[in-house]
């Protein structure tokens, strides 16, 4: 074998190895984006997503909750988070995803969404307006072993509360 052939063969093997690694990384990022979108879909109406299929048992949620008027995010575990989602669904129906975009790097995914929801039940002492409201949010999730370990959420809390009549 010639030296030139060996050089070309080694270069070819290196390219295949690099391409394989890039392809595997892209697949992992796409998988993480799907998991992050499942978390968003929990807020939508008519979903039957079991949170335990997408969240780790030791999950921590950092959400600036609408029910916390003192401001700032609170840490909540999976059970507390599920209760927050259930409380939301008793007051809002026909929750729809209007728009979304995602960016992923490593084990982090950022998802920006715009949602709409019909205010059908009492929320924070406010009577239902029967109006459809819209709000946007950005959610960052950290994923390990195919499950969400931690979430940070920033959203238009005050625009949301104004639309339901909590702020004049």
From TrEMBL:
Endpoints of the signal sequence: 1-24
Name assigned to this protein: Ester cyclase
Presence of the UniProt keyword Transferase in the record: no
InterPro entries on file: Cyclase_SnoaL-like, NTF2-like_dom_sf
UniProt keyword annotations, A-Z: Signal
Gene3D superfamilies documented for this protein: 3.10.450.50
């Amino acid at each position: 074998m010639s030296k030139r052939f060996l050089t070309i063969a080694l270069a070819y093997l290196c390219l295949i190895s690099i391409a394989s690694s890039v392809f595997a990384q892209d697949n992992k990022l796409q998988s993480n984006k799907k998991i992050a979108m499942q978390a968003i879909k929990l807020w939508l109406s008519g979903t039957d997503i079991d949170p335990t299929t997408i969240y780790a048992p030791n999950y921590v949620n950092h959400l600036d909750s609408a029910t916390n008027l003192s401001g700032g995010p609170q840490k909540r575990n999976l059970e507390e988070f599920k209760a927050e989602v259930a409380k939301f669904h008793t007051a809002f129906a026909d929750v729809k995803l209007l728009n979304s975009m995602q960016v992923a790097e490593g084990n982090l995914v950022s998802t920006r969404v715009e949602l709409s929801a019909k205010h059908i039940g009492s929320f924070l002492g406010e009577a239902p307006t029967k109006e459809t409201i819209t709000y946007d949010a950005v959610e960052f999730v950290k994923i390990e072993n195919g499950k969400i370990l931690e979430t940070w959420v920033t959203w238009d809390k005050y625009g949301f509360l104004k639309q339901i009549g909590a702020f004049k």
